[in-house]
Amino acid sequence: MTTRPHDTGQDTPGPGHPWGRPGPGRAGAGWPLLASMPATERRRLIALARPRTFDRGDIVCHEGDPADSMHLVADGHFAVRVSLSSGDTATVNHLGPGDYFGELALLRPDGRRTATVTALDPARTLVLTEVAFRRLCEEHPAVHRALAVLLADRVDRLSHDVLELLHVGLDRRVYRHVHDLALDYRDTATGAGDAGAGPVVVPLTQAQLADLTGGTRPSVNQALQRLVREGVVTLGRGRVEVHDLAALARRCGR
């Protein structure tokens, strides 16, 4: 994996949206954090944001780094990893277009990143500086409320994940994660939703799936091999190709 310095990349702002389009949804409304803002204010904020691009494997930030900005995900996907007391790391979240990260560090007294964020595929974000983030919260109190709701939703999802670890078998956890990731990648790919567009590629390694599901790489491989024998998926280097989403949904009880 490669690491990019904090403020490198394509970060020269221009008039309007830096990529010639507004990001998730119309005028950025697809970002839940900004949805409460008037469209004109969203466009102004997006125009002032700094665009960043990342290749697969690029590290956006390291856990413990000083923070000076937050990111709105426009394209691509990111893995969020945290350190364990054992010295190992674990993947605790997976982010895609419309998501955001980095806001917790701007709210913490120590101003430090709480996780390491890595690009899983070519990705683009819009960067809001700490000054812009605080101005956003001051000028639009609804953003504070939206942020509180979104943080509560994250806590709820983490609590659900903990319950799954305690009460759902590993095979079904693996199938559920692969299914949900496949839906995410299908919906953000070109020609999304076209049943005839071929397999959906989930560009995660089996080690990353093990992190997400609380298993080991060998046990995750065994679960995936059962799907391979049924023709539901095929495995490649650093990827899972899903050929039958409906069958996968049945296997994971969806």
From TrEMBL:
<dbReference type="InterPro" id="IPR018490">
    <property type="entry name" value="cNMP-bd_dom_sf"/>
</dbReference>
<dbReference type="InterPro" id="IPR036390">
    <property type="entry name" value="WH_DNA-bd_sf"/>
</dbReference>
<dbReference type="InterPro" id="IPR000595">
    <property type="entry name" value="cNMP-bd_dom"/>
</dbReference>
<dbReference type="Pfam" id="PF00027">
    <property type="entry name" value="cNMP_binding"/>
</dbReference>
<feature type="domain" description="HTH crp-type">
    <location>
        <begin position="168"/>
        <end position="246"/>
    </location>
</feature>
<protein>
    <submittedName>
        <fullName>Crp/Fnr family transcriptional regulator</fullName>
    </submittedName>
</protein>
<dbReference type="InterPro" id="IPR050397">
    <property type="entry name" value="Env_Response_Regulators"/>
</dbReference>
<keyword id="KW-0804">Transcription</keyword>
<dbReference type="InterPro" id="IPR018488">
    <property type="entry name" value="cNMP-bd_CS"/>
</dbReference>
<dbReference type="Pfam" id="PF13545">
    <property type="entry name" value="HTH_Crp_2"/>
</dbReference>
<keyword id="KW-0238">DNA-binding</keyword>
<dbReference type="InterPro" id="IPR012318">
    <property type="entry name" value="HTH_CRP"/>
</dbReference>
<dbReference type="InterPro" id="IPR036388">
    <property type="entry name" value="WH-like_DNA-bd_sf"/>
</dbReference>
<feature type="region of interest" description="Disordered">
    <location>
        <begin position="1"/>
        <end position="31"/>
    </location>
</feature>
<keyword id="KW-0805">Transcription regulation</keyword>
<dbReference type="InterPro" id="IPR014710">
    <property type="entry name" value="RmlC-like_jellyroll"/>
</dbReference>
<feature type="domain" description="Cyclic nucleotide-binding">
    <location>
        <begin position="33"/>
        <end position="136"/>
    </location>
</feature>
